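Researcher: Here's my situation. A collaborator sent me these components and asked whether they could plausibly form a single complex. I don't have experimental data yet, so a predicted model of the whole assembly would be a useful starting point for our discussion.
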Amino acid sequence: MTPPRYQRRKEDRPAEITAAAFETFAEKGYANARVEEVARRAGVSKGLLYLYFKTKEELFKAVIRSVVLPRVDGLLRQVEDRSKSPTAFIRGPVREFMQQLPGSPVAVIIKLMLTEGSRHPDLVEFYWDNVASRGLEALRTLLKRGIANGEFRETRLAEFPHLVIAPVVMAVIFRLLFQQQTLDSDALIDTHIEILLEHLAAEPEGSP
Amino acid sequence: MTPPRYQRRKEDRPAEITAAAFETFAEKGYANARVEEVARRAGVSKGLLYLYFKTKEELFKAVIRSVVLPRVDGLLRQVEDRSKSPTAFIRGPVREFMQQLPGSPVAVIIKLMLTEGSRHPDLVEFYWDNVASRGLEALRTLLKRGIANGEFRETRLAEFPHLVIAPVVMAVIFRLLFQQQTLDSDALIDTHIEILLEHLAAEPEGSP
DNA sequence: TACACTGCTGACCAATCAGTCAGTAAGAGA
DNA sequence: TCTCTTACTGACTGATTGGTCAGCAGTGTA
């Protein structure tokens, strides 16, 4: 009459465990997250967790992959879309992406990368290859496309796409650190984008 | 004939220990830094360290204070100096400060704040009160001063001094994370400052 | 030189936690 | 319904490390 103590759900366990691990890492950071707590949140024993993930570090990597990869691919695919002009693209999808980032799981991943990156060089490499470098490259392409079709002026900004996303990084960090301080990151990003577009649209000196 | 096993140097110990702790925290982060290692680097036993600092956390706070406070005061005092125009000030001291930051001990502190901040709320508060809010306020003052004397146009940028320093934060983080990837942060910051000044100097629309 | 004060040492303790494994029971297959 | 595979449990272990403290030895004083 007692219900079974557990159910066998081989298929679902890994995803449930990485989800629980994401929550736990988000709250505690890697070093302070207890494997036991991850297991408890996943409704599973510690032993089972170790059946699916060989070590805590393996688990960590699985979390990063599960959160980051689906998102990145979605965004980068949009850059391929040439139906929008670069200006419209920046005011549209880029702005939208930037505004939702500070509250998204990716922000948590960024924090974890900062926090734990130095101890997991292969993870940083993975992140660089799959996220950071691809994102910067996409922005650079976008800027160059605008310059090529005369929509943007020649500018060194095209060499530093970092400047486009710097305010988002700033906003993410600001929120992580000074949670009690409010920051209207949407307005911040709007202001930033207007400054950027103004710069990109300006005539070079000496032109009419 | 054997030299004394140690010397009594009550006065110097605290500074030597915080210096050793800074190095250790910089390399390992807080959680992974061993108190024993700090003591060894300071040429001191673990017991002595605990004589001067009650806990590892106290030590951590002392490190932050010792690195951050002297630097902040120096910089902020310059903003009081009204002999330079806001434009010259941004092109001069502000730019210089921004360019040297990524390689300075303050960058390490920023990393530590990010890494450990959530577990030391009182430290974050200290940092906010003494560093971040004062720095942002100084920038805001500078921008408003330029607007007031007609050197800068009216702009929402004055509400978001964060945008001025965002690229530095970006550069610091980029270096911390992707050490192998080179980033010409001086050029990045130069580009950023030119974009900013261009924006600040531009006539509002509708003006001659 | 003797003495006392205290800066300093390092062996030790207690707590924490990643990872293990012997055993249990769900539930598929016959 | 019985059997056998294996998903699953949770008590346990070994290693690590923050923090303690009894005593040792420099150093100033008389």
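Model: Some features of this prediction you could bring to your collaborator: The interface with chain B takes residues 29, 31-32, 111, 113-115, 117-119, 124, 127-128, 132-133, 156-157, 159-160, 162-163, 165-167, 169-171, 173-174, 176-178, 181, 183, 187-188, 191-192, 195-196, 198-199, 202 of chain A (CB under 8 Å). The mean pLDDT of chain A is 91.
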